[in-house]
Fold these 4 entries.
Entry 1:
Amino acid sequence: MLKSIKKNWLNSVIKPFLFLIVLGTFVSVSYGQDREYLEGFYAVTRSDNQIFIFNFNKDGTVLVTEKNSEDKDFKELKKYELSGNNLTLHPIWDPGRIDYFYDVSITKKEDGLFTFSKAGLDYEIQKHSNWPAIMHTLFVLIALLIFNHLCRWSKWFVWATCILLPLYLTIYVWPMTTVGTAVDTWFHVAKVWSALAGSVFFTLVRFTKLNNYKWAKFIVAAILVINIAEAVLRDFELGTGFGGIYHFLNGTAGILSIITLSGWLTIKADNSRFKDMVWPDMTLLWIIAYDVWNWSYICNCIPEHAVMGLIVLLSCTIPAFYKVGTWLQARAYTLSAYMMYIMSGSRWISHPLNNVLLPDNPTFIIILAITSLGLNVYNAYVHFGMMIRRKAWGFGQPVLTLAEQEAIVATNKTFPHFIKLA
């Protein structure tokens, strides 16, 4: 009797269940082989200049990012279906915030663009290619290196490009080019003018007797401190508003970057034909820690400029390695040039097709912020350790010895003194 019940249960339940599993597997595999799909990043532009990014996956999902001109981007995962030249999107859950792509016919044209219209607005969806973006970033790096060299070469070039040109742009260009873009904020206005002010003042230090006055040297250091403090405040502002811990980690790293600046009394114009402004007590360790902190800030707060921000940092760090002590001078010149560039053409520059897109990975942002804090903590450990051992407590006094300072000023070769500080 018991054996009969087990046999009937096996025939009535188990076998049909196994049959359904085999059939479902066969159907799903067949469907997966026949199903059309898209893969990779696509840039979506709308006729009112709103930008979206589609990240298509083979599993039939697409991560839709709505680029926000104020603070944070909005991201939502959706389903998609591709049949021939027709693309449709469907919500996985509630339609949510990004609901512009439902109930429309998205059609692929002969030129490879997907297009559709909705509510009087025209949309274009185009596959992202890294090559034009890579060429753009390389062009910016080379242009900034050349701009820095021209500023070293001629003070008249600085007056023309850092005083006359931005005055014209402020009155006639930026009021039109920044509206509705990511740079239409108080921070970016403050950033461009603080960078320009630094460029002008640093040039006066180089070519006048200002480099002999302590108050002028203090202003040089204060400009850098203000520049860092602006970003620290922005990090904490966004961290408070959106609750991302990486903002607080990186903001703390920025504070450490400020308090480990020393030796501003050693700032002076050298005797080379360029009359470069050098800061002998600024170590390469501090510069590297600053670069990581600043790039982490860019990835946290303006991620669409992440790769370009790294290029801007390289444009002033590269000169600091072939002429140590000139980093701050190069930072002011290259940042001024880039900020004028991005304020004048933000819509084109921030377009996904013109930028190398980093993977959308929150873990990366957190790791970068932790690295930023770790490097700046290590720099603080080295810096204050040197202060204690050498009793270099005076305000503005150098931590490096006079011999180390002279070695930096006397040569244009790389002086990796951060290794000795360890």
Entry 2:
Amino acid sequence: MKTQLGNLLRYITAFAFLTLASCEKSDSPNPVDPPVDEDRWITVAGALMGTNPGDGNGGTMVYSVSKEDARNPAVSISVYDDGMAVKSNRTARLQSSEDGKTLFNIAYTGDNGGEFSRYKVNGAGSFVQEDVTVNISQYASTSPRWLKLFDGDKTGIAVNVADIAANNAADKTQPFKYYRGTATVLALDLQGVLIRGYKQYQIPLSAGEELQGHSIFRLDGPVLNKAQDKLIIGTWMRKTNPATGLTESSFDRLGSKSVVVDYPSLENPKVISSTVGFGDNSGYRSHNSFLATDGNIYQATQRDSKGSHILRINQNNDYDNSYVFSLDAALGAKNVYVDSWKYAGDGIAYAMYTQEGSTQGYIARLDLNAKTATKVNIDYDPALDFGQYQGILVSGDEVFVAVTPVGKDGNIYIFNKNTGAVTKGAKLVNKAGNHYIGVF
């Protein structure tokens, strides 16, 4: 009897252990709960000057430190002297694994444009490129825009729009109907390092919008919805004069639009429109839409005729036009423009922005539930420019950002998302014309 009881207890213990291990290795991690790992590397990235100070067109350097060193203002980091150059003719499009131990990159333009590579992060300037590559240029061009989904480091999505032309470009005897390009949406397996699948199609607007010359110029900022069955992709809109064929620099903007496609098939593109925001929502070189704790997706606008807004897309994969969050109103400023932002959890986000009357960058703490925004108290400088900023790191309650004016030294700053407290961390040593563009 004792033997039978002992065997039963051992069985129950083993079953409980296996069940716990299974839960810890779930294939469906919660994308809105940032992992906490004190042992993770903190990688900073710096953009080299090309022709003009701050243009970032000279390539990208990376350097890694411990979390403890990142928090320490007595530590100095010089990415340009001690770091490693990642593959890219211009500014690289970098992403990191959730544990900070792997760096992902797709080279931007040049002979190796479109080449995906993966680096093991060993600390300091040691990044070992793994012997695995894949090139997506034949599908998404040598200048692809891509982001890593919040799905446990499984998938990257690259997007592109090419060959925008009028329907009657080859035969002017036909009546004009639209300008359209061919869109590509490509899924990249980050672990297997292979192209999982791709789709190409034209994405029409309404007939009336297209007759006026409106078209989707660029796609970017893909994000996976809570049900993990749809991708929401941001758009950058353009208007061409149908009579002259010339691109118009100033025009009456349509409501902000996103493209929704089925996932993982990438099929059935559908355009959704906001009546709250009137800007683009593709972002530039970083995530611009985030799945939040409440199950909704929040999205920032750029080039908005009424100043930047934070828009909400509900779990029916459509804009919630009852949600109105104007950053102009919240910050008491005019023509706010969001350069980069990051959802930190529990309805809190941090945004890098500019406003009317200045090219200087600022940082604000946003409360998406209360619809409030407060400028963060850090050392500001007229040469501070977040226009090319890529990486804001959230680890637990901490938010890490790199702040350096062009050509001047700066610091890593750490924000506590719960309290709003600000800590000045490691010094970032700069060089003329350069600036730091992210923490990963």
Entry 3:
Amino acid sequence: MNKQTTGIHHITAFAKNPQQNIDFYVGVLGLRLVKKTINFDAPEVYHFYFGNEQGSPGTIMTFFPWPTARRGKIGGGQVGTTSFVVPPGSLSFWEERLGRFNVEVRKSMRFGETYLQFNDHEGLQLELVEREAGEDSKWSFGGVPADKAIKGFGGAVLFSTVPDRTMKTLADVMGLQKVAEEGDLVRFQAAGDLGNVIDINARPMPWGADGAGVVHHIAWRAQDFDDHEAWRTHLLASGFRPTPIIDRQYFHAIYFREEGGILFEIATDPPGFLVDEEFDRLGEKLMLPEWFEANRGQIEAGLLPIEVRVLEEDRQ
């Protein structure tokens, strides 16, 4: 069976302080909080979803902000750097904006593209790159107008403990195409127009450690529920041991760990974030799956209060 993912569905990372997490990804980066829910496996922890105006697949950065989380260590078995794509001509806007928020930025070149690299408040490694491909975001917030807004993912840089095996999985199992090599980096590309460019460090990386400031997993797109079931069959035939299909309310998910240690997920595009909230109200209410509704009072009492707010730098 030949399968090809169109690219990244979402990337999920650990954080520590939930308000600081919202302030950075909404207040600084201008993404929309499209869903405020809980970690279904640890309901005492928030699960935030940030993305474009409706959280389209390929735009969704998610976090588990856990106030007691230890600091993580970036290394092998992880997404090392998460790439966001912005419209052509907007990097200078972002360089000025990040500087105004005292975010240290670095410029670098790879594969003929200029990247603006920086860390979030937890140390998570991020970067911005300009590309024509991908639908522009229609969302604006604070000091980020829609014509400069992040479109979604550009892709990711993977850190593997066994990069040859990870690259084989990307090509032979996930259906990405190897398109270039430069120094220690190898570039793969998926068929979509967002979240489709994956670079991998071809040198083995020492193991990282989970905690605030590191990525927990990277999720790849399945077009629908039938395609998702076919992906699970494909993974089993390829020698992996994927989880059963899990209903995550806004998509169905299966998980498996590739041989370089990175936790991969395959997630369905449907049903999306409008399944339980109207477009204009996305992210406003704490949304719980029905099996937790009876415990809403207890769950809400245990979570720190948060708000989506325009930051002082944008009110001056």
Entry 4:
Amino acid sequence: MPSQRIPMSAVDRAWLRMDTPENPMMICAVLMLAQPIPMPRLRRLLETRFLCFRRFRQRIVEKGDRVYWQDDPHFNLDNHLHRIALPGPAGKAELQELAGDLNSTALDFRRPLWQIHYIDRYNGGCALLIRIHHCIADGISLVRVLLSLTDKSPEPRLHRVAGHSPAPQTARPMLQRLLHRTVDSLQTAIEQARLLYQSVREDPGYPLKLATTAGDIALDLAKLGLAPFEPSTGLKSSLSGRKQVAWADPLDLAEVKACARALGGTVNDVLLSATTGALHRHFRNTGAALPTCGIRVAVPFNLRPLDQPIETLGNQFGLVLVRLPVDVADPIQCFHQVQENMNRLKRSYQAQVTYSLLDLFGRGPDILERRALALLSNKASAVLTNVPGPRQAVYLAGSKLVQPMFWVPQSGSIGIGMSILSYAGTVQFGITMDKAIQADPNTVMKHFRDAFQALSHAALAGRPGAGARQAG
């Protein structure tokens, strides 16, 4: 008898339907570890801390226009955990090439949508290359899931892992389920009405504020729809579906914080400015024309409370379009423009608007989503993510995690994904791009470090009013 089918949420379904041969919707992580891990120990770790999330044992089932999660009756860890070795020196270049190749390869939709490759003898230790479909969860949730595999010391402590899904309930008759949904909706409506009445009693101006908020949301929706398409640059191209990846040597987080303090901004402002500077250097060094109005990147904005337990997965984030002033040469001026753009977005409802659009697209016909996706993807040149990691070094199956890296997928016609991850007093920066994009990922990584150094030197030298002098 087949197990219970669980309907997929509309937002998760939207991410499932974004999957294309050119852009598989996978979140990819590379965990570089100091020592090899015995395979039996890694298997036990996955069985106790990873597979306790029921979603990783479930495959996707489609019935008509409905999509469900269903336990895989033939689930076997061997179908998802593979052991391989790198060729030649088994160093960074070989690992980057493997990550690019696997990033280009779709997952098997007949099974639960994830894969882990254990990579022998990487830099004297090992590495894990992990791929998980975006419809399972968003980047922040999956980073937290992966961190639940780690410990603060080489010898793990026994602990309870949040994430066990409740035991499946017996399927209820359709009429009973409909009745329950109706009662739930009625109770929600009553509760909303009570809260509205209470808010009006406490603040007579509340209806006006509510109307103003609704107007602001409508304005942000209009701005999103009416935003012009991205300029034609080498960063936008017809995609080949073959990826290449690279990552930079880590930055010292203390240096990044010192730079942010000197400029009166945030760490995020500094890192976005360094990213902008890296792309400015790319345009300048390749002789390409600088887009006079900058470029936009799509930045995921977390809508899930960070202290919320990861008992359930799924996607709870929106996207904001951030303009990067890549046409500005001076690092201080660039920083202030980035800071102003970010502050404006923080006051907007763009993330909530895009989340609602994803929910709407996931409920509608496939052609509607694809047309809307094509429209939105023409308004960004890249996807950029920034995820906080643990402040102290952690251990996975007794082996120290030396460097973590991850990438989120790009959607539609976007061919570049950049990711920032803080870990143990460092900042990791990585990039994935389609091979049709006219840029070298390793060169862009060098530009990122150079751009940060230029901004840091200018900030600590006390040049808040610097003019538009060329950055070196």
